[in-house]
Amino acid sequence: MSVRLQPDPFLNELTSMFERTTEKGSVWVTLKHSSEKSKVQRNKMKTSGEKIEFRCLIRATDGKKTISTVVGPKDHQRFQASYATILKSRMTALKKRERKDKRKAADSDKKEDSKARTAASKAVN
């Protein structure tokens, strides 16, 4: 069952979800564009010329508990900044991918080839 929270308590609960799943587990967060009105109501508002205010529905679950919140356009910037801070601080268990720099790899291959040619020419002489 999902619990709808205000944005600040949602962020606090999200932080505690990340803490609970530090050793083992995952947290899934979904964001959805929402107007909280039915399609019929939106169509009536559209035909009458009323402006439809869209919001962002955010849900988070750790598999056991599900929480959600709705963020309006006025609070979106502040919420997004706080959310980004939480994500950056909690994603410490991720492993960096080993990448080969294409130029360095190509240069090292060329150096190895030239060393091999030099050694082969010395062996022939």
What does it look like?
By secondary structure, the protein is of the alpha+beta class. It has a single domain (2-94), classed as 2-Layer Sandwich (Signal recognition particle alu RNA binding heterodimer, srp9/1). It is 50% helix and 18% strand. The protein is built from 4 helices and 4 strands. The chain has helices spanning 7-20, 39-48, 76-90, 102-124; strands at residues 2-4, 28-34, 55-61, 66-71. Strands 1-4-3-2 form a 4-stranded mixed beta sheet, with helices on one face. β3 (55-61) and β4 form a beta hairpin. α1 (7-20) packs parallel to α3 (76-90). Belongs to the SRP14 family. One of its GO terms (molecular function) is 7S RNA binding.
Features:
four-stranded mixed β-sheet; 7S RNA binding; alpha+beta; Signal recognition particle alu RNA binding heterodimer, srp9/1; 125 residues; signal recognition particle; elongated
Query: What's the order of the H and E elements?
Result: EHEHEEHH
Mean pLDDT over the full residue set: 80
Low-confidence residue ranges: none
CATH topology: Signal recognition particle alu RNA binding heterodimer, srp9/1
Number of helices: 4
Counted beta strands: 4
The Rg value, from CA coordinates, equals 27 Å
Strand order in space, largest sheet: 1-4-3-2
Q: Which CATH top level class fits?
A: Alpha Beta
**Percentage of helical residues?**
40-55%
Q: Any idea how many domains?
A: 1
CATH superfamily: Signal recognition particle alu RNA binding heterodimer, srp9/1
